[in-house]
Amino acid sequence: MLQFFMFQNYKTIMNIFYWLDPKLQDFHINMEKEYGANCSDLSFERIYSTIDVFVWGHFFGWAFKAVLIRHAGILWAISVMWEITEITFAHLLPNFVECWWDALILDVLICNGLGIWVGLRICKALEMREYKWASIKDISSTTGKIKRAVLQFTPESFTSIRWLDPKSTAMRFAAVCQLVVFWQVTELNTFFLKHILKCHQIITS
User: Fold this and answer.
1) CA-CA distance, 9 to 7, in Å (whole number)?
2) Residue 113 clears pLDDT 90, i.e. is over it
3) 29: domain range?
4) Full-model pTM
5) Exposure letters 93-110 (e unless 16+ CB within 10 A, then b)
6) Considering the chain, what percentage of its residues have pLDDT values greater than 90?
7) Picking from 68-72, 92-96, 104-108, 174-178, which range would have the lowest pLDDT averaged per residue?
């Protein structure tokens, strides 16, 4: 999709989005909300005003990332590096401008941290779980059939992953660093697309 957009002009791309969802013609990103203004105000009302739908996006997003990556060290590295990325590109993307307590406490420690913790707890539970894949035809109770149908969307097995250990080679370490960098670039690309195309983040993702 992105390769196709590279050969189109801005108007053509926006017309494609409007064709997919006509409501986007009336959609506008709220650029008036400032996250980085008057940072000395640490009142409860001020902190509460910064809590919006993106708080849940942070939490659930990092929970899913934890299930994918399954390594606390790498997850925390990505989380901290993302805040550094926001500071680096704040002059280009206004919504990256945040107060220090918003970036460090609300984002990194609370939203991201809780999401990472929940995601890793889910991984731990799935690792210890005993998977019994019986045919749904062999289950007599309705509750059992429903439970078996839900289990269809869970993995056959769940393997613990060790990205790095003391015996890891330099190539392995370089590959992990490459993963972290590519992860940052991918997420940054989403924010740039949202800013340039002025579309909802679900569309640009």
Assistant:
1) 7
2) yes
3) 2-204
4) 0.69
5) eebbbbbeebbeebbbee
6) 16
7) 92-96
Count of domains for the chain:
1
Q: How many other C-beta atoms are found inside a 10 Å radius of the C-beta of residue 171?
A: 8
* Three-state secondary structure readout of the chain: CHHHHCCCCHHHHHHHHHHHCHHHHHCCCCCCCCCCCCCCCCCHHHHHHCCCHHHHHHHHHHHHHHHHHCCHHHHHHHHHHHHHHHHHCCCCCHHHCCCHHHHHHHHHHHHHHHHHHHHHHHHHHHHHCCCCCCCHHHCCCHHHHHHHHHHCCCCCCCCCCCCCCCCCCHHHHHHHHHHHHHHHHHHHHHHHHHHHHCCCHHHHC
Task: Return the pLDDT at 182.
Answer: 92
Residue 180: which of 63, 58, 74, 62 has the closest Cα? Answer: 74
What's the whole-number mean pLDDT along residues 154-159?
65
**Which sign, positive or negative, has the C-alpha torsion 63, 65, 69, 72?**
negative
Over residues 66-91, mean pLDDT: 90
Q: Is the dihedral of CA 22, 187, 49, 113 positive or negative?
A: positive
End-to-end alpha carbon distance in the chain:
11
Q: Which amino acid is at 124?
A: K
Q: Give tens-digit pLDDT for 2-50.
A: 677 777 888 888 888 888 878 777 766 665 566 667 777 777 777 777 7
